[in-house]
Sequence to fold (783 residues):
Amino acid sequence: MIHSKYLWNIEEVAEDKAIQLAEQLKIALPLAKLLLKRKITTQGQFDKFFHPEKYESYDPFLLAEMDLAVARIKEAIKLNEQILVYGDYDADGVTSIAVLMKTLKHLGANAEFYIPNRFTEGYGPNIPAFDMAKTQGVDLIITVDNGIAALEVMTHAKEIGLDVIVTDHHEPREVMPEAIAVIHPKHPKSAYPFDELAGVGVAYKLAHALLGEEPKELLDLVAVGTVADLVSLTDENRLLVQLGLRQLREGANLGLAVLAKKASLKLEEATEETIGFGLAPRLNAVGRLGPADPAADLLLTEDPEEALFLAEEIDDANKERKQIVVDTTKLAMETIEAKESLGNVLVVYGEGWNTGILGIVASKLVGVYNRPAIVLGIDPVTGVAKGSGRSVEAFHLYEALDKHRDLMTAFGGHPMAAGLTLPADNLAELDTLLQKEASYLSEADFRPSLKIEEKLKLTDISVSFITQLEKLAPFGMDNPKPIFLLEKMNLKGTKRIGADKTHLKTLLQEDESEVALDAIGFGVGDLVEKISPSAAVDVVGELSINEWNNIKKPQLRLMDMDVPHWQLFDVRNKSEWSRILQEQSDSRIFVCFEERTLATLGDQNHILVNETESFTADFQTEELVFADIPTNMDLIEQIVRETKPERIFVHFDAAEGNQIPTIPDRVAFAELYSLIKKFQPFPIEKYTPRLIQKFGWNKEQIDFMSNVFFDLEFAKMESGQIIINQVVEKRNLDESTVYQQKVEEITTRKKLLYSNYTELHSWMKSMMETSIYPNAEELENGN
Fold:
């Protein structure tokens, strides 16, 4: 067996509806099922999903109070009032700043931007910053990607005569802030048909309203902020990102282009992954380490030299951020490993830890331990702990923390993530309370899950099918990249690849089919040795097209696998046996029948089975290794039936040059008998060297023939010499128990050492499928 790392969740759809949609849209059935799950059920929805260039985005004036915002901004521009765009330090925040600043500058506005410092000010508007803006002559503040929850700050702004327009997309509170206008997709008075815009999407809507037409040249910025903020990539967000990616490929913002080049990213081939794994982490990195202004400056500059300087600064910050994450994660894991038990929630903290990267560290800890994790840095001067938490699906992190809000000075979040600040003195109590909150979690809850789109057959997979799948992009929230399940695959030519041999490459085939699919698994090279030749493997992964020498072939990026049955591994090969001995596994037991074998096993877990005593398997194990050979196969069968391991390894002492003994023929027995009779009393030990020289027998054969004579009472041993007995009746050699045991031993050795893998597997299968316990019918019959 191989147990899957993830829980596989498959959302089923009605087969008849899928068939109907496939016929209606003239598409493959598996694709129709994917579209049904994305609530695409009509030709119009299909057309809009796949052909965004045909459609316009929604009217920005459907957003409540947009007219008020536009009127106040145009008044400020006309009067040359000083405008401050108040942003946020993440990628969504800095792209929002860039979109609105470029629009305001185009309209001739007197505008600057301000980003609060993550470490000294925290997220969102704050009274000192607004007071400073007022004293510096700012007449109008426009927030982007923040402000909806800052009710007290907005009230203060009104009191000091500072006009504010709020643009935001985060969850609003029960009442709207006091402001000139509040632009939010979820505004209670809004008629806007889509409420999942990112902060940059809301800023783009304001820009559209101010200009009277869409500033489509800014859509690359919108795409970056939208993908980076992990909002739903459906409806208008999908449209904005699709068009934005096209802009990114064909005419990217100068700063993004220079940053991409610095990061060795090919913008002409840009996808949502280019943003999510390349551009966004770099834009985020600056604000995680200090002031985020360089990221906004990069997106706003028109000077290539300045762009290069800023891109290098940002790329260096990203490298530093990565190293800090590595170092802090290591410290956090050391702290966790030093505890007596993991607990159901990981709460870990340390002095001086950079609070800007603790969300990333928490995510990594969840990935390693599959438990909710809260990571905090303690300021040694103030004694304040600040950090982030990430969770698993079974644990609502926000609700658990919200019950103990009194321990915290600041707190916010959602079911899977949270940010919090509290006195360090309260950490131990918070840890204890969270363990109680999570006491209901079981081991099953700690397993990560994968959402599987559909089961496929190899015959369903083609280059044209994958081409259709790729048109589902951009992938993200509510439109995940499809992951498929292929069941009962035979793996051919499985091997480790890569410079460090940590990756897996194989060929998938179905029984009695010539159809095959290339598969590659990154970071799962250790599975190569865990897959037996006879395994029927269930695999999940993402499909792509691999092009080599102008030939396009489907390929699976293998993400997880499961072997739902026992497996047999033939390790009679010397190199394979050496590998097994070098591995250490607590779930593996070596079975030995000869004491001399123990010395070859080192520190491996083992049992020594005495063949002369009755055997009872008083242990359970996932892996059973037969290191050497018993004298009869019944013992192996008993051990296998009683333990029913998941994996069986057979070595049988094969790599030690174990030879099959031969039984002397009847002529040899007759010759030895005649010599003993002629020269009795016969000192067998004395004459053994001469017998070996004259007849070519070995000592084992001479001892064996002698023991057969004794067993049949043809002779007896007295004082080290053999004497022939008076034999009344003739007896055959095979009547001897000694002779029979030797025959059985040789038969056993031949079978175990010379049988091929298929023969051994068939034999083991008969044992694994036979219960040692009586079934219901046998019990009823009294058997």
